[in-house]
What does this fold into?
Amino acid sequence: MAASTPRHRPSSDLPVIANFDSAHVTVGAGVAIFHIATSRVVVCYHSVDRYWFLPKGRRDAGEDSGTGAEREGFEESGYRNRLLPIPLRHRQPQAHNPRTPSSPFVTEPIWTQLMPVSRAAQYILFWYIAETLPPDLEENLTSKSKIENGAYQIPAPFPRDMTLEQRIELEKDGYEPVRHQNTGVDEEEKLYESYLLPIEKAVEKLRGTVMADVVRRGWEGICQRREIEEEVQGSGS
It folds into this structure.
């Protein structure tokens, strides 16, 4: 399950100063959805324009960016998912009041992109790391969605006290994450196909984009989390 070291990574740009009012900025979120047990990640393919990409899109008004990433991941790929806490260097402080227990694992964006929508509008895109859902949660949300006429169901967050090894044990050998059909919300999204690909194959499909590094760094974070958890378990035995 070791993460490979890429030959080249994109680098962060220098900080910028820019100001946009609400009429000239769009906030979006994207997600790399991993099936940890089989070392694969969800990648989408545009069946007409013929390019590979990770699911992403605009968050809804009033929606948290992380929740928007999960929802867009489901709508564009068909895979239900939830954000996955991983060890990640970031600049956000811990909550002060109430003070929450410190954890080495967070669900902060792993990359942020600034892209122009037009000459007058700015797009801000946050990239997150997520996992496919365990079978019981998948079944529960699917049942709720049917009762509520197909309404999107927000998954419960990854349990704070669960290790990745315990998470993997929730699936029987050979379990395949469910890919739901017809989850796209418009004609464009109906053209999307999605596949669970091995990590290196996904990186190759996304080569030359920040999305390739989202997958690389996300998988490295997953591997690092397992190593940390194994060390903690070993020191306590």
